[in-house]
Amino acid sequence: MAREPVILVRDLVKRFDSMTAVDHVSFEVERGEIFGLLGPNGAGKTTTISVLSCLTPPTSGEARVCGMDVTKDSLGARSRIGVVPQEVALYPSLSARENLAFWGRMYGVPERELRERIDGILETVQLASRASDRIDTFSGGMKRRVNIAAGLLHRPDVLFLDEPTVGIDPQTRRNILELVLSLNADGLTVLYTTHYLEEAEFLCQRIGIMDEGRMIAVGTRRELTESIGATQVIRVVADGLDADAATWFKDSPDIDEASVIEGKISIHARVGANLLPTVVSRLSSSGASIHSVEVDDPNLESVFLHLTGKSLRENDQ
């Protein structure tokens, strides 16, 4: 008998008056998975998280967390999830320890266990040495780590992270991504929303791409790129190339496109890495002097552009 997914969403709709924020969205998240919701601001990611967190009821459809319906058994569902909202939910005049004690009591963590759990979670987010310092003395990245710690205190089965790296520097962002990977390696299931392509590609085993309230594609990075016929690109910089070099490869059934521009040949192919030895051998035998070779994999930007006709990066400027 197949095991039920940790998160199950079926035909989910959420309307606010005349606006449809989530439009018949469906997806599943398996136990132990990092599942990403990728899309621009306003795509419906945060509203989906809000419904799953039992913060707002769905207009229609089904949403279950750990087998519990978020509408019919909201208390049960809430006890199994940790939520890290997009905005930092901490009291600036309290210390990190005091903030975590407050949230631990809100989650119902027994007092006899609370201090030990706070000590452990501060170690996990690498802030044990700042436990007694006020939150208003912390950097933006440190506040976000305490925010994550608050969502972990009651030892949830699933962690919802809603755009946890917005507005922080690249090094701190990397630290948070590494923290998420570490938590997942310990068995935590993660639902992660982002509008950063690089984060989704780095973190997530599977990704749901959202736009204008709709789920437009779901799969692994490879499944998503293959579904649109996206290709790898071999780029070779060499002396002695001429325009005719591209014609050597255009007749191959494995190559979609080839062009030479200013001493660089670009070859688009479904299996570019497999063709690399042939490309290098052919160019070398023609007398070209090769300086560099690289293979670029297709990315999620290509998928989003293909499915929506617009760039995900442009949506967030």
Task: Explain what this protein looks like in three dimensions.
The protein has helices at residues 45-52, 74-80, 96-106, 111-124, 140-152, 170-185, 197-203, 221-227, 247-250, 272-285, 300-308, 312-315, and strands spanning 7-16, 19-29, 34-38, 60-65, 68-69, 81-84, 158-162, 189-194, 206-211, 214-219, 232-239, 255-261, 264-269, 289-296. The two termini are 47 Å apart. A hairpin with a 2-residue loop joins strand 1 (7-16) and strand 2 (19-29). By secondary structure, it is an alpha/beta fold. A six-stranded mixed β-sheet has the order 6-7-8-3-9-10, sandwiched between helices. The protein has a four-stranded antiparallel β-sheet with strand order 2-1-4-5, covered by helices on one side. Strands 12-13-11-14 form a four-stranded antiparallel β-sheet. Helix 3 packs across helix 4 and helix 3 packs parallel to helix 5 (140-152).
Helicity range of the residues? 25-40%
Q: What's the story with the biggest beta sheet?
A: 6 strands, mixed
Strand order of the largest sheet: 6-7-8-3-9-10
Unreliable residue runs: none
The tally of helices reads: 12
How do the SSEs run, as a string of H and E?
EEEHEEHEHHHEHEHEEHEHEEHEHH
Compile the SSE list and pairings.
Layout: E1 7-16, E2 19-29, E3 34-38, H1 45-52, E4 60-65, E5 68-69, H2 74-80, E6 81-84, H3 96-106, H4 111-124, H5 140-152, E7 158-162, H6 170-185, E8 189-194, H7 197-203, E9 206-211, E10 214-219, H8 221-227, E11 232-239, H9 247-250, E12 255-261, E13 264-269, H10 272-285, E14 289-296, H11 300-308, H12 312-315
